[in-house]
Amino acid sequence: MKALLGVTGLLLAGGGVWWWQTRGSADETAAIATDGLFTVAKGELPITLTEDGTLVAKDSQKIVPEFRSRGKIISIIEEGKVVAEGDELCKFDTAELQQQVDQAQLEITKAEADLQTAKTELEIQEKQSESDLKKAKITLEKAAKDKEKYEDADKPQEIRRLEIAINEADSAYDKARKSYEASLEMFNEGFINESELENEKLAKDRTEIAKERADADMKIFNKYTLPMALRDKQTAVEDAELAMATAEKRAESTKRQKEVAVEQSQKRLDKLNQQLKERQDELGKMVLKAPCPGIVIFGDPRFTWDDFTQNLKVGGEIWGGNTLFTIPDLRVMQVKLQVHEADINKIKLEMATKVTMDTYPGVLIQGKVTKIAAIATEGNQEVKKFDVEVTLDAVTEVELKPGISAKAEVMIDVRKDATYVPLQCVFLEGGKHWCYALDAARQPQRTEIKPGMSNDSYLEIVEGLVAGQQVLLYNPSVPTGAPSPDEKEKANEAPPPVAAPAGPAPAGP
What we know:
This protein is an alpha+beta fold and about 500 residues long. It has three domains: about 1-60 and about 330-495, Efflux pump adaptor protein, beta barrel domain (Elongation Factor Tu (Ef-tu), domain 3, Beta Barrel); about 60-95 and about 285-325, CATH 2.40.50.100; about 95-285, Orthogonal Bundle (Helix Hairpins). About 45% of the residues lie in helices and about 25% in strands. The protein contains four helices and 21 strands. The chain has helices spanning about 1-25, 95-190, 195-285, 485-495; strands at about 35-40, 40-55, 60-65, 70-75, 80-85, 90, 285-290, 295, 295-300, 315-320, 325-330, 335-340, 350-355, 360-370, 385-390, 405-420, 425-430, 430-440, 445-455, 460-465, 470. Strands 2-12-15-14-13-16 form a six-stranded antiparallel barrel. The chain has a four-stranded antiparallel beta sheet with strand order 7-6-4-10. A three-stranded antiparallel beta sheet has the order 3-11-9, with no helix packed on it. A hairpin with a 3-residue loop joins strand 19 and strand 20 (about 460-465). Helix 1 packs across helix 4 (about 485-495) and helix 2 (about 95-190) runs antiparallel to helix 3 (about 195-285).
């Protein structure tokens, strides 16, 4: 507050210099002209803060090409042209992209054929595997049944046959032996000759050999033939089981290979279809249209130093992702302000604001504060400023355009029944505020005052003056026109003047 009021004193001192140069010295007070005096006023004093700013649209649509690589411009709209929603803004060359689309369609046709072939081979393999498994299963069943048949039928029958053969051989041998013994007695008694006896002996020997052979057959069967036959039958079953398991694994493995071939073909086809869709989508993105009505601005107005807009011409090449156009919505306009840190706490949301523009003389637009930045903007480290947005009421008498300079007067407060004087009446000296008021003899007397709030022209006087008094509009104690040492010191410490864009002095001492 002291610093800002110091600036007030500096301004008042400057105003006093001018009046002194036109008036003369303090000893010539008898010749004070009436135009160098001001009668202390009392009444309603509006407290305002005036800042310079720039007119912008509240909402803007940024048009950014969505293609992945770069595009060559073949047609483009003129900057500053008013467009309606859906109007064409820019068109890019699609020859290369169309060639990629055609190539992708050819590859898709081949991939579809490869996929159909893979599916057919999978179907064939499934049927072949089914047939192989069926054959292996039948072979296993036959081997098991053959083993079961041998154990349950063939083996008992063979054993029975050998037993019968042994019994028959034993019986034949007994019969031949008895016949030989009877013939031997008859030979000894002379009833038969030696030849007949020899025949009986041969018959006995043959049956004895047959008996030994039958016994040997039984032994061979039990010791060799039966175990070997059982082992052969078991081996046949085991071989069939192994063939069955092998057929199952081979069928599963081969089927999986065919399935993988189908999956790979399907993935490749899906990838090609996705690529085709992306290329076709990009074809649709090679024409940029206005998403809303407004004025076409090249590039992004926030980056005025960017030379990117130089490529916005026929034949220029643009990479996707860059902002080509900005279309501000002119239905709702704002004024962007930057307020000094000494004044930012005075600004509150919804404060009424009056806006004027040199572009439209005599036009006064009402608005209100709608946004106050929470932190200062980056820039000069010695002078901190905060962004403030003022949203304007709708107007019909003029067509507002972004970028126009504007002056915004924010209504901070209204001091009811205030005592006030012009800013140049008050000066700072020795850490106190002074002015020169006329006494009863109409002689200027240095008078200490206590200042209050101010606007661009007037300062509220809290103590020291009363309505109706007359005060000098200058400081007669500074004949050379130079500020006092105390004023110099205060001025060096002070922020920008209250009448400058930084705004008036804060309320209260």
